[in-house]
Amino acid sequence: MEAHAWQNAIIALLVAGLVGALVAARRSDLWRAAGHELLRRRPIALAVVGVFVLIALFDSVSWVGGAGAASDQLAAHKPRSLIDRMFPSDYKERSYSAPLAGAEFYGGEALTYPGGHLLGTDILGRDVFHLTLKGARIALLIGGFTSLIVIPLALFFGISAGYFGGRVDDAVFFVMSVLASIPNLLLLIALIMVMGRDPVSVCVALGVTSWVGFCRVARGETFKLRELDYVQAARALGASEWSIIQRHILPNLMHLVVITFVLLFSGLVLSEAILAWLGIGIDDSWGQMIDQARDELSRDPIIWWNLAAASTALFGLILAVNFVGDAVRDILDPRTLREDQ
Amino acid sequence: MSGAVLEVHGLVTSFPSEGGRSPVVDEVSVEVHAGEVLALVGESGCGKSMTAFSILRLVPKPGRIDAGSVRVAGRDVLALPVAEMRSLRGSDAAMIFQEPMTSLNPVHTVGAQVVEAIRLHEKVSSDAARARTVDLFDQVRIPDPAARFNAYPHELSGGLKQRVMIAMALSLRPKLLIADEPTTALDVTIQAQILELLRELQRDTGTAILLITHDLGVVNELADRISVMYAGRIVEEGTRHQVLGSARHPYTQGLLRSIPSLARRGEPLEEIAGVVPPPSEWPAGCRFATRCPAVLERCAAELPPEVRLAEGQLARCHVVAREQAAG
User: How far, in Å, CA of A103 to CA of A111, rounded?
Assistant: First the structure.
């Protein structure tokens, strides 16, 4: 199977998993109430996040050929996503042009699509609006995929350390301390140097360097849960360690998982922007657009649309996610529970 | 009465302290027969709960069982492999805890938790386990049991939660039920209902109960025999009438005098001076020596002898020994 077909399959699985999780959560009164509360408190932020997610999903479904296929051979055999198909396949100019301009920024030659580039074009003549939309997928990939690495890893080590204590705890704590004593950025750079700069490697590198925080939280919480009466009661009823972890520890950590996911997400997307600035980011990410725009700021007259588009998109997503995260924490964290509970 | 369901002999459970390990349960021996209620009575911190945890081998670390033997339904608990121990817990010996408020997991429905307990030990379908749970809820007098099945713990009152805990403990028809202060956290009116329920269930099922409490009112309601514990040791034991009616050990007498009574209205309530000292400060001889009103010179240094007072009644005390010798 070709790469884009794999990708389509993974997206289908992801959507199915997401829908499954939502359906499962709806069955629990607790989660359903939390969902309604979130919708009530942060409708706009949720809508913004939803739009980003939709764009990313549309950009992930791609196929070869079809309507609007390019005249040239190369483009005709390139898989194009739903987002790509919203634009003409040869939607390119030769170089910079300002938003909605009719002519090139330097030289003033007429454009192929005069007035057609909502946010102008970059140095290679690519449409900035198109690039910005495509950046959403990379951003969500970084945040989502890395969280998928971080959370299971942190849960596994955190719960093992907290539940079994003793030697296991010592070992996990040692690993965490070692990781915490290496400057994060240097470790990140080293890992990316070793593994390469493709999206998966960058996500793995980010995952390896950011699981310690949540691991510590999970460990502490498990430590507390382990001593609770209902865990003791389960033990007195003859429950095995595994079934106690599964039935009593894990479900009581789920609110932390959700909170961590949302808060981790924005941090990871921002980290990628920093990596891009250092030249080791993922291709076509907003971070890379911002990085490229660095030089353009020193031109006269200034070329601002590149930077503005990527920064606004990044800022919008992070702000919305943080708003949602804040509300999620308020709703789910027992320490900030409302009076009526 | 048939054979003993629970036999504990010379049980020693210790925790580390500054000067080595201190035994918080020291040479404790109890026996509970089928259909009998034995009350283990004493103040807070005297090792009652640790005795219970030792019986199920659930002593929290760094505590450790050092010596003695525990047999539940004829099986040597301290020698069982872990997997068999697990299957014994719940099915042969179950436990009810002090705090119904926190003994149920807030994220699962109460019904699901009882079903889980059943399915831990028996291979039954979830429908069958569910039906049995509803029956159990009915048996422990939970009103509208089918609807309560899907309730979350926070939706139930303390009394109902304790009923759920009792249903869970009885779900596998254990031969021994350990009730650790089952009514302490409840209102007085609810306490009476729960005690009534325990007595009925005990009569119907013939389960042996080890009742752990500091409340002599509860003891009077439920117990057949009583063992009084002080600072890790059993100081006096006998039938309910013997211990409540003619207690000889100064500690038991002190406990009995400190029950509030309407007959002595207006008078200050008597109390036993001081508190149970921490294990590291226990005297070498009789541990009650530091607080005993009738203390003798030899009490602090020499272990008190076991004095047989009547059929089934024992006291471990120098004072009682002297009185007994004097006739």
Answer: 5
Main-chain dihedrals φ then ψ at residue B23, nearest 5 degrees: -75, 115
Inter-chain CB proximity B97 and A232 less than 8 Å: yes
Distances (CA, A) of A275 to A183, A190, A220, A287: 14, 12, 31, 8
Note the maximum CA span of chain B: 68
Q: Which of chain A's residues have a Cβ under 8 Å away from the Cβ of B58? A: 232, 235-236
The structure's pTM equals: 0.79
Angstrom distances, CA of residue B1 to CA of A64, B4, B37, B55:
85, 8, 12, 22
| pLDDT values of chain B reduced to their tens digit, one per residue, 327 residues | 447 889 898 899 988 887 778 888 888 888 898 888 999 998 887 888 889 889 888 888 888 888 888 988 888 888 888 888 888 888 888 888 888 888 888 888 899 999 988 988 888 888 999 999 999 998 888 889 888 898 888 888 888 888 898 888 888 888 899 988 888 878 888 888 888 888 888 888 888 999 998 888 888 888 899 999 988 888 899 998 888 888 888 888 888 888 877 777 777 777 887 888 887 788 888 888 888 888 888 888 888 888 888 888 888 888 888 888 886
Q: Does the beta-carbon distance from B103 to A30 stay under 8 Å?
A: no
Q: Which residues of B lie inside 8 Å of A (Cβ-Cβ)?
A: 56, 58, 60-61, 86-91, 94-95, 97, 99, 102-108, 116-117, 120-121, 152, 165, 168-169
B317: nearest Cα among A228, B308, B49 = B308
Alpha-carbon torsion (A35, A40, A41, A42), positive or negative: positive
How many Cβ atoms sit within 10 Å of the Cβ of residue A228? 18
Q: What is the pLDDT of residues A195-227, one digit of tens each?
A: 988 888 889 999 988 899 899 999 999 999 988
Q: What residue in A sits closest to B95 (Cα-Cα)?
A: A236
DSSP-based three-state secondary structure for B291: coil
Are A282 and A272 in contact by the 8 Å Cβ rule? The answer is yes
CB count within 10 Å of CB A308 equals 17
**Which chain A residue has the Cα nearest residue B89?**
A238
CATH class of A129-340: mainly alpha
B233-239 and B313-316 beta bridge pairing: antiparallel
Please count the other Cβ atoms lying within 10 Å of the Cβ belonging to residue A213. 16
Contact B322, B294 (CB under 8 A): no
Q: Cβ contact (<8 Å) for B89 and A232?
A: no
d(CA A271, CA A188): 10
State how far the Cα of A66 lies from the Cα of B323, in Å rounded to an integer: 107
Q: Angle at the Cα of A222 (from A221 to A226), degrees rounded to 5? A: 125
Contact B276, B47 (CB under 8 A): no
Yes or no, beta carbons of A236 and B107 under 8 Å apart: no
Please check whether residue B4 is in contact with residue B33, taking contact to mean a CB–CB distance below 8 angstroms: yes
Q: How far apart are CA B45 and CA A125, in angstroms?
A: 80
* Helix, strand, coil percent content, chain B, rounded in steps of 5: 40, 25, 35
Does the ipTM surpass 0.95? no
Per the structure block, which two tokens stand in for A226? 């382990």
Inspect the interface and report whether the beta carbons of A29 and B152 lie closer than 8 Å. yes
Question: Residue-wise over A139-161: b if at least 16 C-beta within 10 A, else e?
Answer: bbbbbbbbbebbbebbbebbbbb
CATH 1.10.3720.10: which residues of chain A? 129-340
A vs B, Cβ pairs < 8 A, gives 64
